[in-house]
Fold this sequence. Notes:
The chain is α+β, with helices and mostly antiparallel strands. The chain has a single domain, classed as 2,3-Dihydroxybiphenyl 1,2-Dioxygenase, domain 1 (Roll), CATH 3.10.180.10. Helix content is about 15%, strand content about 30%.
Amino acid sequence: MRVIRIVANVATPDTELARSFYGDLLGLDVVMNQGRIATFATTVIGRQQISFASEGGSGTAVPDLSIEFDNVEALYERTRAMGFDIVYPLTDKPWGVRRFYARDPFGRVVNILSHIT
């Protein structure tokens, strides 16, 4: 038996609020929209992961989601330009990632990162 997919579900009374952050900012495609549920996805196939943490590293709170990108610097500037709340600045971490935290329209904290090569 193997895991096929892991899906994060965020409760909201208005699924359309997700479009600006997850669609317009992060570039995810709407792959299903039934009104009561809207699913955003990417065509890139990656590892299935779920993490459990007591803190987010460097004394930060545990983010609700972590999403890895190939160019975190460009996404940081785009997040600022679009006016989303950055709750932790773009920072290189000793464990080999460059990341920042942004707040989505639902108040969730999203860890946006790239691995440092």
